[in-house]
Every structure is written in structure tokens, then in C-alpha cells.
Amino acid sequence: MSNITRRSFLQKGTAAAAALTIVPNTVLGKSHGHTAPTDKLNIAGIGIGGMGAANLRNMETENIVALCDVDWKYAKGTFDKYPQAKKYWDYRKMYDEMGKSIDGVMVATADHTHAIISADAISMGKHVYCQKPLTHSVYESRLLTKLADKYQVATQMGNQGSSGEGVNLTCEWIWNGEIGEITKVEAFTDRPIWPQGLMTPEKADKIPSTLNWDLFSGPAEVRPFNNIYHPWNWRGWWAYGTGALGDMACHILHPVFKSLKLGYPTKVQGSSTLLLRDCAPQAQHVKLTFPARDNMPKVAMPEVEVHWYDGGLKPDLPAGYPAGREMNDQGGAVIFHGTKDTLICGCYGVNPWLLSGRKPDAPKVCRRVPKNAHEQDWIRAAKESAANRVPTASNFAEAGPFNEMVVMGVLAVRLQALNKELLWDGPNMRFTNIGDDETLKIVIRDGFKIHDGHPTFNKTMTDPINAKKFAEELIKHNYRDGWKLVDMPR
């Protein structure tokens, strides 16, 4: 285990970033601050047992030089696949030892550690490919957006649909005025497919010898280990994941954010099945309201409501919808309600179609990425100089603000006990209508039982929680000792 301090590796990383852009010019003979397309990047993978393994397979044109995971049993297949790569438990030790030889970092850890791992890499001048959701909180999203701009590195969020043809067509049809003005959008997913709405385990399980639970916990409070959390099922627990919304909205709502040129919402409201303190609910509905944006040449951009459903909930079928046609397409769908027509696309923006049956022939104004080349597009961008770089399809300048929209939905659900629509000040990252003395209570455990044929309702609740402080912690997490985000650039 690494005993290095945060200051130590950041100081070394800052020095490394100042000394090189991709890899040392003295080593590879590179100049002009970029890498020739024929040269290979040195890539480190962090979180390599699940989706990270798939991402690395799509990066095998480059040198996979370092691998890091907190669970070496889960990661064994990837370790074995790249025997030349140096293995680590702690990403901080990896950065400290290999900071001068790593060009780019692939991050596919649990949601709650995306931000700190990515922020440290960017601050060292490294290119970053980070899985979705980009971060666990609004503040973390804003931080990565600003860091990427400050250090001018190549970035990409792992919502691969953003590189797909469906998102391009959806944007081009809407921008060409094919369905008119849009004031309402509805979206849903068939997730969660992992357990949610669960009671917090009362007993701890033995920590496997192949798992470093302290490192998995990272900046979050270290809870007693239970097999219900790991692997993979951490998605449904607030401490580590963002539930079905955070997992799938980054795929499903991206064409909404991009085509409608959304920014910060002004109002949010959430509801759900039983809301627990520690675990995401089984089903949710979120409404986000966005103000009018600047009109485009062929279509206006009025105020719009975006509705999200998950856990089996779906919007009503629009009038005229073909009987018997399944709307769920690869995990969900989006309905754009326009004044001229209705546009529907699936998860990842796939297979857009118009309810009228028309087939638009709109000008192709979006950049096309080769099929299944989301990771390779990031590699391409990393080899270009910052001055001449063509941004990736989901670079942090777009993915950061978009991810704020996604985790804002999580905030709306977790603050639903205030029983009101929340007003959001985006630039200052704060709710403006939560009073200093407002409180809320959240269910810790549902004690519903049947006794002698009679139901008893006995919910264990938290003590009253100051709502303003609770909201502030959800917006910007308080990391535990030993874990600290880099400062927000001014």
C-alpha cells in the first residue's frame, strides 16, 4: 500500500506536466507539444474488472503500461491479458511512480471515485477517458469541466452513444426545424437491473483477501463491508453510485442535452418509491425545467421540461403511437414532443424516427465518428496539439455540464421530502428556496411486518436533518480525511 501524501504526488505530477505534453521529447523525439498519429500513447487503466476491461480492449492500438484495481480477483482477467503492464492497488502510488511515463488514463471505477482520480490525472497534464456518470456530484462535474479547460488535455466521457449516428441525426433533425419547437421531453430506462430499494445490511461480511475495502471506499465513509455492495451492485447505493438515473441517463439524455443546447436547469422536482437513506429507490420520476435558450436559425429554443422515469415507470404513449410497437430500444427511449411532429429515439440515441412517418433529409452538420470508435476518438484527440485539437464527442466541456444535469436529478430525488419544486442557481451551485431552518427526515429501515394477519407499519427514520446543510453536502461532498480534491480553478 502507498503511504505517499497527496501533496507529494501532486507536486511530482505538476513537475511532470510542466516538463512534457505527452511523453518526454528526449525519449521519443517528439516536438510541437503533440504526438504523431503513428506514435503510441502510454495508457494506464484504473478500475479494470468491468467496463474498464472493455474500454482497454478498444485502446489496444496503444501501450497499456499500468493497471490499477482495488479488487485483484475481479481484475485478474485484465491483469493476465496485459502482463507487461505494472500492477497497482492504489492509483495514487501508480501516479507517483509512473507519472512521467503515462500519457493518458482510463477511469472506470465506482462513481464516487471518478472525480478525484480524474482530477488528479488532469492536474498532472494527463489525458482522461472517464466512464459515465462523469462524477458523483454537481461540484465534481464543474471541477472536471474547469480543470480540462485549464490544462487543455483531451477528455472523453464513456457514454459511447455520443459518437453514434443516432445522436447526430436527432440533433440535425431538431436543428433543421423538422419537429418544430420543443417544450416537453420524456425519457425512460428499463433499469435498474441490479438490486435497489434495499435495507442497509445489519451485519458485516468478511472482506475478501483480494479486495482492499479501504481503497474501494476512497473519499467516502468506510462502512462495514458486505457482499451486497461489491462487485457491481454498488451502483444502487448512494455512497458509491447514483442509481438507475446516474447510470443510464448519461446514455439516454445526451441527445436531449445536445440537441436542445441545454445548460443549467432552473427548477427540479423528484419523486420515487420508498426513499431510503442509503439505497436508491426502486423507481423514480424527475422533472427538470430549463429556461429558454438562444434561438437557432431554423427553430426556437423555448423553456422546456425534461421528464425522467425508471424502475418500470414510463411516460404515456403519445397520440397516434403505432399499436404494438415496443418503445424500449436497447434499454430505454426518449420522446421529443414538437409543435410539428414527435421524434422518438432509443437508448444511446439509436434509431431515431418521427411519429408522422416522414424521413427527414436534414443537412449533416455534426462531425461523424467511425462506428464503434468512441475510445479511439479520444486517442486521436490526445495525439493532436491542444491548439489544433478537434474535440471528442463527449469531451468534458460538454460532458461536465451534461453530467450536472444528470446528478441534479439525483438531488431532486434525495430532497423530495421537502415537498416542493426546488429552485436552482446554476452558476453558484445552490438552491435558492431552501430555508436555513428547514429540516427533513429520511427512512433508515422499513419495519413493515404481518403479525397475526394484521399489517404493522414501523419505519425507522433519521432525526430531523438540516435540509440546507444536507443539500450542500450532496452538491459538494465532504471527503473523509486523507482524500482531497484539487482546488477549483478560478
From TrEMBL:
Residues 202-257 form the Gfo/Idh/MocA-like oxidoreductase bacterial type C-terminal domain. PROSITE patterns: TAT. InterPro entries: Gfo/Idh/MocA-like_OxRdtase_N, Gfo/Idh/MocA_oxidrdct_glycsds, Gfo/Idh/MocA_OxRdtase_bact_C, NAD(P)-bd_dom_sf, TAT_signal, TAT_signal_bac_arc. It is an enzyme of class 1 (oxidoreductase). Keywords: Oxidoreductase. Residues 42-158 form the Gfo/Idh/MocA-like oxidoreductase N-terminal domain. One of its GO terms (molecular function) is nucleotide binding. Its EC number is 1.1.1.18. Coiled coil: none annotated. This is Inositol 2-dehydrogenase/D-chiro-inositol 3-dehydrogenase.
